[in-house]
Automatic annotation (TrEMBL):
SUPFAM superfamilies: Winged helix' DNA-binding domain (SSF46785). PANTHER family: SEGREGATION AND CONDENSATION PROTEIN B (PTHR34298:SF2). Residues 1-29 are annotated as: Disordered. This is Segregation and condensation protein B. It comes from hydrothermal vent metagenome. InterPro entries: ScpB_csome_segregation, WH-like_DNA-bd_sf, WH_DNA-bd_sf. The keyword Cell cycle applies.
Length: 213
């Protein structure tokens, strides 16, 4: 589940929702809400409207097809999502369903950003080795930085460590240096900021005098 922001557009309400808890077919909205929630809970990215409808049996297409969804089925899907979001709000849940990139996704509410960031920070620190944490700190404070510069500071090779940090999407390639050999420049990612609860690199804590990086 991903974190919503204040700028995240709310899920579009159904233009003409069926009355009460009925749909245009024989199934009720209550028949749809559970399957919708189950699919979105296991998805790690927005689920296209057509694929969501196919997965819950609201259309005859298989989940892998992209055939246009009939207007009635689209309205039923939107109405069921409206009902889920209303239920979430009434019960004080920490998430809601958002319309993202033409699909639907469960997103945590912005007011829970601080506790999520704290958890993510702890999780990353627990799974990163000490050399990885040290290398990440050098990249964060000295970016854009070359591998040779990092190795000069640490005194050891760091190719595998950099690969690990890139696999965790904490470090990325930012270009090449304008020097002999055009070495690769490394920097931190947006996920690095999100993981450590930073709005920007300006929020990095100051380095103590005499300390590295």
């Amino acid at each position: 589940m991903t974190q919503a922001t204040d700028e995240t557009p709310a899920a579009a309400p159904s233009p003409s929702p069926p009355p009460a808890s009925e749909t245009s077919g024989s199934r009720t909205l209550d028949d749809l809400t559970g399957p919708i929630e189950a699919v979105l809970l296991c998805a790690d990215r927005p689920v296209a409207v057509t694929k969501l409808a196919a997965a819950i049996g609201l259309s005859d297409d298989s989940p892998g097809t992209d055939q246009p969804l009939p207007p009635e089925a689209k309205a039923d899907l939107a109405a069921a999502i409206d009902q889920l979001n209303a239920d979430y709000e009434t019960s004080g849940r920490s998430f809601r369903i958002e319309t993202i990139a033409g699909g639907y996704r469960l997103m945590t509410l912005p007011r829970f950003a601080r506790c999520i960031a704290a958890f993510q920070k702890q999780k990353v620190q627990n799974r990163l080795s000490k050399p990885a944490v040290e290398t990440l700190a050098i990249v964060a404070y000295r970016q854009p930085v070359t591998r040779a510069e990092i190795e000069s500071i640490r005194g050891v090779a760091c190719g595998e460590v950099l690969k690990t940090l890139m696999d965790h999407r904490l470090v990325t390639i930012q270009g090449r240096a304008e020097e002999l050999g055009r070495p690769i420049l490394y920097g931190t990612t947006r996920q690095f900021l999100d993981t450590f609860g930073l709005a920007s690199l300006k929020d990095l804590p100051p380095v103590e005098t005499g300390a590295r990086p």
